[in-house]
Amino acid sequence: MRRLAASICPLGALPLQTALSGSHFALQGSNKYFGHGQIWVARASDTAPGPATPARAAPSVRIESLGQAEVQVLLATLDKEQDRLLLTKQAPRHQAVAALRRAPMRLGVVRDAQLRVVACGALLLHEEYAELAQLIVQPAQRGQGLGQLLLAKLEAEAIIAGRPLLRIEVDVRQRAMQRLCERSGFGRCGPFAGRRADPFSIYMESLLGKR
């Protein structure tokens, strides 16, 4: 294929007939469309694609304070969900906010790209172990891996706090929470923190770093 020579005539003088872009015929310099010394001109439709759409920001998780209004609203949602699970023979559960004041704790908060609170959960620090408590994801945000993100953060906090033994009590009807804990390496254990065996509760634990 012969190399097309550079044009010596003004650009406005070029014949802008239909360019057979990319074709063998056009590149051969046909006398009908491109004579010697002419420049092959690309069509406007051959322009490069525009910039790619920016990726959506991932949720973030941090340790925050309990007193925030958004956190209080989310924990109130947890109270309502737990109330719906209660049967007449079950003892009433502690309210979420009150339960978090019983022991030193770390509160993990997940925020979306708009910095709205979409999940939270606490790590209660007992003398010999840590307890996961009051974990909840906004109903509209479930199924997106936010629970796993939150759990990983609280596990890291347990290690930092020197409590590698992590425990949790799960209601038997909270299937999603059970599956999350099982995927994360939790196994069944007996009641802890002075609690008694309860047909509606499942007790689980995990020794972090030993999986």
Question: Would you write up a description of this structure?
Answer:
- The protein is α+β, with helices and mostly antiparallel strands.
- It folds into two domains: 1-46, no CATH class; 60-207, 3-Layer(aba) Sandwich (Aminopeptidase).
- The protein is 23% helix and 21% strand.
- The chain has a seven-stranded mixed β-sheet with strand order 1-2-3-4-5-7-6, with helices on both faces.
- The termini are far apart.
- Residues 1-35 have low confidence and may be disordered.
Radius of gyration: 32 Å
- Give the proportion of residues in helices: 10-25%
Helix and strand composition category: alpha+beta
Globally, the shape reads globular
User: How many domains make up the 3D coordinates?
Assistant: 2
Uncertain regions: pLDDT < 50 for 5+ in a row? 1-35
- Supply the number of helical segments: 5
- The CATH topology annotation of the largest domain reads as Aminopeptidase
Number of strands: 7
